[in-house]
Amino acid sequence: MNELLQATFSAVNIIPTALLAFVMLYWLAVIFGLLDLDFFDVDVEPEVDADGVSAVSWLNNVLAFFNLGKVPFMVFLTFLALPFWAFSILANHYLNDGYTLLGWLYLIPSFVAALFVARFLTMPFVRIFAAMEKEHESAANIIGQICTVTLPANGNELGQAAVKTAGAPLLLNVRTTQGSAVQKGETALVLEYNAENKFYLIEPYQTI
Predict the structure, then answer these.
(1) Residues forming a β-bridge with 201
(2) TM spans, by residue (predicted)?
(3) CA-CA distance, 69 to 77, in Å (whole number)?
């Protein structure tokens, strides 16, 4: 254990150790509500020239390959920091006899290997965050629309309401603002989406 601690804080491993410590402090801040998950978010967007031909930069292609932009930056960095630290520790333990310069050189292959490990580990999260983004966009499109109540609702009990779409009506779980209630057949205005509890907040609305 003492040997691991000495290796962790040695000069050759201080960079991956600092990165791992930063990630751990970040998640503690998220847990205690001091930071949001997307505080350090990276936006990877293609650039298009005047002729409409995609001019995505080489860097953006690399970022997208490693799932940056598909998962939050700090989620990727978390899966990068741990293998980077582990590879650096192992490389210097088995392949270095205490040469600082050689240890720093080992950071390069350790980092590259950690990138591919992070890409593999974040693959399951790509679909999860894609689904969450789709749900968020769908919810945003419904806000401000008029719905028809199909099951009564109030500020404490969930009901249901239907929103007209180009196809079949979209059925929503709804709850009204405190102090109000809606009955079956009445109309209401969709105010916001409660992502935590998966329902839409509505208020009674009288159409003219």
Answers:
(1) 175, 192
(2) 12-32, 75-95, 101-122
(3) 12
Distance CA 113, CA 73 (A): 18
pTM of the model: 0.63
Distance CA 201, CA 154 (A): 10
Q: Tens-of-pLDDT digits for all 208 residues of the chain?
A: 788 888 888 999 999 999 999 999 999 988 887 776 666 665 555 444 445 444 456 777 778 888 888 888 899 999 999 999 999 999 999 998 888 899 999 999 999 999 999 999 999 999 888 876 665 566 667 888 899 999 999 998 899 999 887 777 888 899 999 889 999 999 999 999 887 788 899 999 876 6
What are the boundaries of each domain within the chain? 1-140, 143-204
Burial pattern 136-149, b for ≥16 Cβ within 10 A else e, equals eeebeebeebebbb
Burial of 20 (0-12, 13-18, 19+ CB in 10 A): buried
* CB neighbour list of residue 6: distance below 8 Å, 6 or more residues apart: none
Dist CA 104 CA 57 (whole Å): 29
What DSSP designation does 169 have? P
